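Dear Dr. H.,

I hope your travels went smoothly. While you were away I took the liberty of generating a structure for the chain from your last submission, since the lab meeting agenda had it listed for discussion. I wanted you to have the full record in hand beforehand rather than looking at slides cold. The sequence, exactly as received, is reproduced here:
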Amino acid sequence: MAGAPLFTAISTSAKQLHTLLKCIAFSQRAEVQITQSGIRFSVEEARVVQGLTFLDKALFSTYSLNLNDDEHSLRPFSISIVALLETLQIFGIAEASSSSRNPYGGISSSYGNAFSAPALALGGTCRISYQEVGAPLTITIQEGSVTTTCEMNTYEAHEQYEDDGGIPLDRDSLCLKAIMQSTWLHDAITELSGTNPTVLVLSASSRSAPYFALEGEGGPFGDSTVDFLPESKNEPTPTGTRGKKQPLVTETFSVAAPSEGHSRIRQRYKFEMIKRAGRAMALGSKVSIRQDQQGVLSLQFMIDLGDGANSGPRRDEKNAAAPPSPGSVAFVDFRFVPLIGDDDDAETETESDVNSDGHEGTQ
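The corresponding predicted structure, in token form, is as follows:
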């Protein structure tokens, strides 16, 4: 008779798990790492874009991981994220439509309606268990008296990145940090999509306008640009002042000089890869935009999961001091590798920005 499984977790809402995992389901496989703090899912494409989401143990009503004293996590493995999502919605979890999108991010309370079949199935519980290393990952969904169990094959994980398991982002040498409502970024990317560009150019400076701009290049209908207005509408550019400006829509904004003699950063990314984060942009309430000196871009979205989640502090191995969330929230992080070899990465200006103050994250 089999002994107790290595890992067991029970969630009272399969919808919350489905919402987070759907944000990063742009590839067939997801790598999974189970830790004492929660479950990390990672999906990548061509080693140039990666989506990560962390299911904090606070999202589960029961969370049990049996490890040896010298272990902190189970060996990573990969599964089919497509099969996992199909299992989670087996009782008909409704997709968020454009009409249910909250303008401030997340999903509005009018998610479906009381008379639709999908709305009746949102209360299902989900049990995740992992018997032993190499065993299938077992998902059990229960709705009323109906129970469905699915065993998904697990596979050996690919070679892991260093740092936190993601495309390396050098937090000690960030040249851009900004926090804004996710809806502003989503609307900008949607606007640029109209010209079907191949490249997204991110341009930022704290010394001269435009302070923050996104450009779409290479499309068949021409190039387009979205400029975020400066903090002072009556003074679009600083005149004779050493004070730093920031876009009106940002809560936090700082630009550090990428190199001596330069104060503007200008980096290029493949537009199709940026669009992989579109779902998280639409659902997120806030987004933290970070770029390091090598051009690696991080978009971290804070997603409100609604009233039904188990609220609690965010547990992040890389940010142990993260404060408790006022409600139930989760984070989805996308990393992008820049395009290189085309155009200048920086524009020369007379003064360099050396201020890197500001918070690092959306908490």
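Two observations you may find useful: Residues 171-296+337-348 form a domain with the Proliferating Cell Nuclear Antigen fold (CATH 3.70.10.10). The chain has six helices and 20 strands.

With kind regards,
E. W.
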